[in-house]
Amino acid sequence: MEENLNLLQMIQTAFPTTKQDIRTYSPLALAYVGDCVFELIIRTVIMELGNKQPEKLHKQAVKYVNAGTQAKLFKIWKEELTEEEKDYIRRGRNARSYTKAKNATTSDYRKATGVETLYGYLYLTDQLPRAVELLRSGLEKLDMLPAGLQDTEKE
Question: Taking a C-beta distance cutoff of 8 angstroms, is the pair 60, 97 a contact?
Fold first, then answer.
């Protein structure tokens, strides 16, 4: 019988490497992977709502995958995060980035980096369900659930 593996486990099985201590990663390294994880969740949700042209999918995703929305999530999650999660989001916000925000204030860009750092941490510690839970909760509080999800209940 084949074991059900999640994405992280499949990657680790296919590409075995020495397991790294999550605390050794820089916040910006965590943000690097966290950016992808955040966008993958959003893109998956949008795809599951119906087949559309890639340009329309992209326009819909950009509403969520941007520094402004991530900065709003940063602010509203304060009470929901564990102390460890707060530490990672704070480390990401305070990290010295060598890139500049294109379409965001410096403050929003740094908060977004905090969110991406948190998502990198959650993914690499096999806590993807928590990442999804936080995003759903945050989008509900911001009244930003994608059209078609507002009336559905959490499963």
Answer: no
* Given the residues 21, 35, 126, 151, the one annotated as active site: 35
35 classed as catalytic: yes
E-state strands within the chain: none
Report how far residue 35's alpha carbon sits from residue 45's, in angstroms, rounded to the nearest whole number.
Answer: 16
Contact 60, 139 (CB under 8 A): no
Taking only the tens place, the pLDDT of each residue in 119-152 is 999 999 999 999 999 999 999 999 998 877 765 5
Task: State how far the Cα of 153 lies from the Cα of 155, in Å rounded to an integer.
Answer: 6
What's the one-letter identity of residue 47?
M
How would you label 90-100 residue by residue, b for 16+ Cβ within 10 Å and e otherwise?
bbbbebeeeee
Cα-only R_g, the chain: 16
